């Protein structure tokens, strides 16, 4: 029951892929998952593989890293394949133990560096206290700050 992806007809692959794409609501996520699943299927078919297993998905991750893709690009592709495993198991097309193993394939750690100029707390407060130039800048900044306030019960300009 590990040969989920080895289907000779394109129609079968499209049906499997549809399980995943129908389970996400965002059109952007759907588009990215579609591309990632097609890429996985193409990679999988290039040479004989042992089946749709954790080891196979981990090998695909290594292949993506070898291509020099960024962490986010790799992780979104891995996530699409994890979702494929979950949907296949939920629909009786893959053993739950195999799906569980595939879901545990680790993504790539993001080693990002903040780019640009980031404000200190004092600079942000100065910006908020600056008179509005008539463009609604202060209102937008205050709204942005309130939306990201981790302490929702604290009193302040957010009215909470």
End-to-end Cα distance: 54 Å
Secondary-structure element series:
HHHHHHH
What would the CATH topology of the largest domain be?
Answer: DNA polymerase, domain 1
Q: What's the β-strand tally?
A: 0
- The coarse overall form would be elongated
Helix content: 55-70%
Number of domains: 2
Total helical segments: 7
CATH architecture of the largest domain: Orthogonal Bundle
CATH superfamily of the largest domain: Tyrosine recombinase, N-terminal domain
Mean pLDDT: 81
Strand content: under 5%
Helix-strand category = mainly alpha
**What is the oligomeric state here?**
single chain
Low-confidence blocks of residues: none
Largest sheet: none
Can you describe what's shown?
The chain is an all-alpha fold. It has seven helices and no strands. The chain starts with 9 loop residues before the first helix and ends in a 13-residue tail after the last helix.
